[in-house]
Amino acid sequence: MTYLMSRLLSTVASAAVLAVFVAPDPALSTEGDSSKQIKSLLEGGDPDPDAPLTALGEPPIPADNPQTPEKIELGKSLFFDPRLGGAPTTPCSACHLPDVGWDVEDKVSFGYPGTVHWRNSQTIVNSAYYGKLFWAGSSKSLESQAKSAAGGAVAGNGEADMMEARLAFVPEYREAFNKIFGDEWPRIGNAWKAIAAFERTIVQTDTPFDTFLRGDDNALNDSQKRGLELFRGKAGCIECHNGALLSDEKYYNTGVPPLDEWEDDGLKQVTFRYELYAKGSTEDMYRHTKDDPGFYFRSKEKSDKGKFRTPSLRYTLYTEPYMHNGMLETLEDVVEFYNQGGGTNEFADNKTALLKPLGLNDQEKSDLVNFIKSLSGDEILVEEPDLPEYAPLPDVADTKEAKQ
Amino acid sequence: MASKKNAGLGFLSAVSLAALISVAPIYSASAEDPGPVAPIEVDAKKAELGKRLFFDPRLSGDGELSCSSCHQPEKGFTDGQALSDAYSGSLGFRNVPTLINTGHRSAWFHDGRIGTNLNDVTRESITETYNMNMDMRLMQERLKQDPVYVKMFEEAGFGEPSNGSVRNAIPEYLKTLISRGSPYDTGEMSEQARAGYELFKGKAGCVACHSGDRFTDDQPHNIGAPGNPEIYKDPLRHITFVTFAKFMGIENYMNLRQDVGAYIRAHPSDKSTFGSFMTPTLRELQQTGPYMHNGMFKTLFEIVAFYNQGGGDDPNKDPLIKPLGLSFEEQQNLVAFLEALSGDPLTGPEFVAEEIDTDYPAIENWLKATN
Hints:
The structure holds two protein chains of two kinds.
Chain A: H1 3-10, H2 15-22, H3 33-41, H4 69-79, H5 92-95, H6 142-151, H7 160-168, H8 171-181, H9 188-199, H10 208-213, H11 222-232, E1 251-252, H12 266-278, H13 283-288, H14 296-299, E2 308-309, H15 331-339, H16 362-373
Antiparallel strand pairs in A: 1-2
Chain B: H1 2-12, H2 17-22, H3 44-54, H4 67-70, H5 118-127, H6 136-144, H7 147-155, H8 163-174, H9 183-186, H10 191-201, E1 220-221, H11 230-233, H12 235-247, E2 277-278, H13 285-288, H14 300-308, H15 328-339
Antiparallel strand pairs in B: 1-2
Helix pairs in contact in B: 3-7, 3-8, 5-8, 10-15, 14-15
């Protein structure tokens, strides 16, 4: 009997478990006694049933932006093209570097020249599955995420009319936008669509854990299987890191400490205050806040200060450092952080009640880390495309016509 | 300037009656000669602050450009190029106008698109994507990080550094940029320049538009100035032009190959202002070439020759622009007069900020400090 089957059979045969048996892909369910265990472990727990852990399927494709090979190819070029920004130095790839996990290795992202960002750059890998993009969920789609990132003052700092005009002066882009979108001249909104289409190809559905969930008992080693047990049970990770994406896409304050670099880096202090100001703070809040209010800037509810959207745990083998401000350097640090019941920040009143000291021993912590590593497959690398160049527009035969 | 007034009376007597009659609608012999340009009262501390801001590249998005990058004091607050540079990744499609005497203008930019005040001109220049591309909220926080600014804003009566105070301080500095010391103002014009002045007021009819102390009527006119083909040959310039034209609501902007000029002020349905540009000041021309809104003329003589032939070809050309029939010598005299309208360079510590340390020192005791 495989490990998976034994796990499933050991649970109470609830309807949910039976449903798993008839599903095309075998899947783990947290319904049953393990769920009760979790509930008993975590007082004041999440009232919602946790979404089952399942293998990651194909990403959802929006009806108004179907995938085509030509669009994906265009999107790839645009992802690496610095013309989509203010100064031509900040393509998407500037802060989503494919060879370091499609993000940035620093605690907070580089930001636009002359500035620095204030949050950790998130990986592009599997971003296709999120319904809430950015750490505070300010975009609902990859299309709008790309637009916001290209325009933000400490990110792309690009202006739509200028970026759109630049695209018009690249003959290859004119041809591609015309063929793919029917644009007479490239429209900037379609650039975001193409980039999103490319990003929907940067997915990973064949991690060891996916393979395991699809029935290969040997895909996880013993330590990882013990880690899975802890993940679903004693450690309670599954309360938030659930479903195929391993994120419930809800907002929590886990008590991540504020970025230490704010204390001694003038440029980072500038950006911090700018974000407080630009995202909408009261005078008192602007004067006295010393940490990132996170989801508050979307809801403007005090009880949401310090909350961030649960990130996926997929591909985390390559995306250190961790958390919205990169304050945890390794996966071991993350596990230890939760083992201690999370941390403390100035929004302590809003800290989730789900977090309590876990009492994991060294072996258990190691097993949990090993399991999390099974959520990453091979590193995804791409060859950077050669970018097409500007060319003057074709002559207009009679310039006087332009005046009529 | 008694000396100049006396000189003026001197050469009024030499003006031929015929010339006076021929330009009667646009020139009255009884009019007082204009100039000098009046100083503008400023708050010294605000102006001093504005001066530092003017030279500080942290006022641009990527920290690469200051106002002075294009408005260079040693070039009469222009950049000496036919067409301007622009923000990183772009190039300009117009010539940099001088800022000397800009405090007296009533509308700004070659197309006169801002007709309010220098506060708004400052805002436009700092935030516009192809100029300095700066989010002024971020700019404000940058300035708050510099202890020198914190002190200067406080001493200037502005309190803490702010976006709005920047927009007040820079104009205060700009108002200090006033022409001074030109031979025209000091009464030290050569005989040739005096003869040129007579032509200017008379036969050549320049004064019809170049009137007043700054020698401009602050109105747009179409003289049929040639277009600058470089704009459309260089994608970096053409992109900027398209960005501008699209934003300003110009029809058919992708197929446009002509600068619309003051048309953008009102988009009149008869397009009568299409291709017209604000009359530029004639002061400080020796420092501010090349000339015209697109830098198509390198020398003052080229300009005089252009007007002498009756300007260029354009359906909207101002009827005032007609062939002048000036001799070569008369054209030279006019050039001599135009040169006499240039005075002392506005350089040196009075107008140029000391070197600026653009680092951002960390605020000590950050966790306890009030933002």
